[in-house]
Design goal:
Helix content is about 20%, strand content about 20%. With about 180 residues, the protein is an alpha+beta fold.
């Protein structure tokens, strides 16, 4: 049995004219994405550093990663075997750490961590009031800041890091021994 030639044309016409009006581009935010931007924040578990993924609005920005570190482990982190802790004291305020001031966009606020990189040397300055860091606290800062920095610069080699805690004490280290580097 032969079908008339009009049947495919009628089927095409029925499919394309379903009664829904054509629209232009509808702006509704950024592009769809299946994953949230993440960085690693280094906490302490049973005396050792553990890389913990954290959602961030600023992937690749060490200051943003350090602000997450200073907020401490999340409640669900305590449910892990042994729980997570930190040797990096937060600020003596419950306010979130700003990363820029309204007066000077792009300029870190005085109560936010500051990071500067020149060549293979990273300088991290923690805000006043943070207090003196322990050795493992320094390692947390070094690993968190350098991992975030490398997110946008994967070919960067080993970095020497100078950390100035809130008391002004300066400690030098390297990121070569960071877990999951």
């Amino acid at each position: 049995m032969k079908l008339p030639r009009r049947v495919p044309l009628l089927a095409l016409l029925a499919v394309t004219s379903c009664g829904i009006p054509a629209t232009g581009v509808v702006e509704a935010g950024g592009p769809a994405s299946g994953t949230l931007p993440l960085t690693r924040v280094y906490f302490v578990e049973n005396g050792a550093l553990v890389a913990t993924p954290r959602t961030t609005e600023e992937p690749g920005e060490p200051e943003a990663a350090l602000a997450l570190l200073m907020e401490g482990p999340l409640a669900e982190d305590g449910r892990r075997l042994g729980g997570l802790s930190t040797e990096v004291p937060g600020l003596p305020t419950s306010a979130a750490l700003p990363t820029a001031t309204a007066e000077t966009p792009g300029e870190p606020a005085s109560d936010a961590p500051r990071v500067r990189v020149q060549g293979a040397t990273m300088t991290v300055r923690l805000p006043p009031g943070v207090g003196r860091l322990t050795d493992i606290g320094v390692r947390q800062v070094v690993c968190t800041a350098t991992f975030a920095y490398r997110l946008n610069r994967p070919s960067v080699g080993a970095l020497t890091v100078e950390v100035a805690d809130g008391t002004g004490r300066r400690v030098r280290g390297s990121d070569e021994g960071c877990p999951d580097r």
